[in-house]
Amino acid sequence: MNKLLFLSFLFISTISLAQTKSTFTIVDKQNGDAIPFANICIQKVDGDTKNYTISNENGEFELTGSENIELTISYIGYKTYQKIVDPTTLKRIELEPDVFSLEQIVVTGQNTPMLRDSSIYSIKVFDSKLIQQRGATNLAEVLKAQPSIKIKQSGSFGSNISILGLGGENVKIMIDGVPILGRLDGNLDLSQITMENVDHIEVVEGPMSVVYGSNALAGTVNIITKNNKWNKAELIASTYAESPGTFNANLYGSLKQGNSIFTVSGARNYFAGTTYEDTRLSKWRGSEQYIGEMRYAYQAKKANYRLNAKYFNEFMKDKGTINGIGTPNPYAFDINYSTDRYSLNGFLDYEHTKKMQTNIQSSISYYNRVMRTVRKDMTDLTEAEADSDTTAFVNFMTRATFNHKISSQISYQTGIDLNTESGTAKRITNGTQNIGDYAVFITGKHEFWKGFIVQPGIRYAYNTKFTSPLLYSANFKINLIENLQLRASYAKGFRAPSLKEMYLDFSHAGYDIKGNEDLRPEYSHSLNGSLIYTHKNDDQFLIKTELKGYYNNIKDKIDFALVSQNGTTQTWANINKGKVKTIGWIADISLDISNRWSFNTNFTRSGISSLMYEEENVQTTYFYTNNFLSSLTYKLPKYDFTTRIEYAYKGKEPIDFLEENNLSQFYIDSYKDLNITLTKSFWERKLNLSIGAKNLFDNQDIAIVELLQEGGTAIFDQTQLLSWGRSYFIKIILTLNKHQ
Question: Which pLDDT does position 34 carry in this prediction?
Fold first, then answer.
């Protein structure tokens, strides 16, 4: 009996010990204050399953069990805590303040997620805080202050981007690694890419041809969306208003049940547009957008699954001149544009071991654009359809990578990249066209000694319309001395013309766009290098300087050119412009003082070779553009208050005009820009308010000047639309969370 009682007592004690509950408190290392709502990831040392939770309002969380665990804790403004701990002895966890936020994790182009400064690529990160401080509603407004990036505006085509002197199809833009479909003139309208539900943006500057394809020669922009791991329930509502006539609203909701996460979001964006004085003609087209998304995520022992469906709709109207004024029945011909974009994306991340992972993503994207010409009766405002045209594109994409870390010095990534696209339209040659690109690639990373990393790579692709060469690249990263990093890269590029560039003819707001079946592929060579020095003095100040240079040499460069003009109607086409070279350098300095002051200034000098259409032996000369950007941020952490001021000087920008197969060069005149934003948090950071002013110098139309062959300049009779003028905005974000 005594033995039985002893064994029973021992059994009960063992169970009790196995189910021991311990309470821990997370505090600030400097002042001992509790840190509420910190993100916590718990993983057994010999296990794969990760459990996510969050500390309560007193900085406390509870653990069950007595086995050692790997504990990861993160919170904005603090360094990430990651240690193997014994729950039976740990009662207090101290987080060290990270005043300068150096520990930014990046995923774009990486074998595994890593710290930005450890990446072999030059990567810029724009987090949600910076997006809010800039009062940015779309991708163009986020990126416009980046020295290596240029944003061009058009009242008809929206905003487009160039990186390191190259734009259009040479910049790959993705959401969670999935390319965005729907380019008009080789460019994506960045104003259609809204910033609601965005966690951060990663920009890789320089060639990524091997990893993401040759249309990533200039760089890659990857928009990383929010992913609710920590909260049982999360609700975010936001609204934005800007003069003259922008009104946006967004609602985001997420629910976590066990290992499943359900997310739904919707947005409505409205812009009233502007017209020329005393006319109905659109200067800046008004638009109305509706965006909806549903997402499901599941975390298994070794695998994470995600499935999301997204819908985008945009309606625009171009108003025509009134005919028959003074008659009983005046009328006008208006053009209504309706754009629909659907996408269904699936993701699988599988961890075989700590050193081997497989990532698979697949998507189906559908883009449909309908142009309807209507005859509007100006007496009763009724509309009757006069003509219509529909353009539809479908893209299938599958990308799979396998990552293997052989040792602490050697790793590699290999993968496949499969893309097919088909286009159907009345104005497409033969009604339907298809193109496919199927590629395999491999990159290998080797650290020869501490601080010296080399990453070569090759990519082979089969294109259904053009012969694709073998692509290769080489990346280098060297820690010369402490806090001084040198990065360099070379890449060979190839880009086949897109279906739209070759086959699509359409009219668009006074523009006639012509396809060009005779386009040849682009072949390119790209060199980039950067030298970065960082010096940190505890939490007092941080200074970071970067000097970057680049050179691109492109044969048969494909670009959009103005072919002719008849009255108010312009005819544009994509052409091969012969050899085009871009060259430039960037000097960037950032200074952070304590947790209050942040200052950044940069100077960019970029050049593009003189246009040599059908000329092979012309001596290279460059047209140079100088840009200067500067920003000042002041924070009051105690009151959650931030002020940000941004100033920019944009130098003369070259453009071109094609007439009878002869290219004449023009430039857009220089201008200055100034923006101010104030942000304040209320109610324990649940309510965030941003107010500000944009374009305080009231830039609107910028003069276009012709470069004469005999020297000198002449004012052209056209202007480049830049902005609708000075504007003021307010943005309100409400965030409500229910913790587990």
Answer: 79
User: Which CATH superfamily includes the segment(s) 222-739?
Assistant: TonB-dependent receptor, beta-barrel domain (2.40.170.20)
Task: Please name the CATH architecture into which domain 105-221 falls.
Answer: Beta Complex (2.170)
Residue 456's CB: how many other CB atoms inside 10 A? 16
Query: What whole-number distance in Å separates Cα of residue 180 and Cα of residue 412?
Result: 27
Q: What's residue 325's pLDDT?
A: 85
Q: How far from 113 is each of 106, 116, 328, CA to CA, in Å? A: 6, 9, 69
Q: If you search the block for the tokens 């509309």, which residue do you land on?
A: 383
**Calpha distance 715→711 (Å, rounded):** 13
- How many of the other CB atoms lie within 10 Å of CB of 718? 14
Fold of 19-95: Immunoglobulin-like (2.60.40)
| Chain position carrying tokens 């006539």 | 245
Given this model, what pLDDT does residue 55 score?
A: 80
Q: Quick one: tokens of 358? A: 């497989």
Domain assignments of the chain as residue spans, ordered by start: 19-95, 105-221, 222-739
**Cβ-contact 152, 625 below 8 angstroms:** no
Amino acid found at 61: F
Contact residues for 342 (Cβ-Cβ < 8 A; gap 6+): 309, 310, 311, 312, 365, 366
pLDDT, tens digit (0-9, with 9 covering 90-100), for 102-144? 567 777 777 677 777 778 888 888 888 888 878 788 888 888 8
3-state secondary structure 199-231: EEEEEEECCCHHHHCHHHCCEEEEEEECCCCCE
Residues in the chain with pLDDT < 50? Answer: 15-18, 509, 612-614, 616
**With 0-12 CB in 10 A as exposed, 13-18 as middle and 19+ as buried, what is 33?**
exposed
What's the pLDDT score for residue 613?
Answer: 46
Q: Contact 305/261 with Cβ under 8 angstroms? A: no
**Under 8 Å between Cβ of 231 and 740:** yes
The DSSP output letter for 542 is: E
Amino acid type, 410: I
* 194 strand-pairing partners: 138
Rounded to whole angstroms, how far apart are CA atoms 532 and 353?
34
Long-range CB contacts for residues 128-134, cutoff 8 Å, separation at least 24: 128/198, 128/199, 128/200, 129/76, 131/195, 131/198, 131/201, 132/679, 132/688, 132/690, 132/731, 132/733, 133/633, 133/642, 133/644, 133/677, 133/679, 133/690, 134/644, 134/646, 134/675, 134/677
pLDDT at 475: 92
Instruction: Report the C-alpha gap between 144 and 602 in whole angstroms.
Output: 13
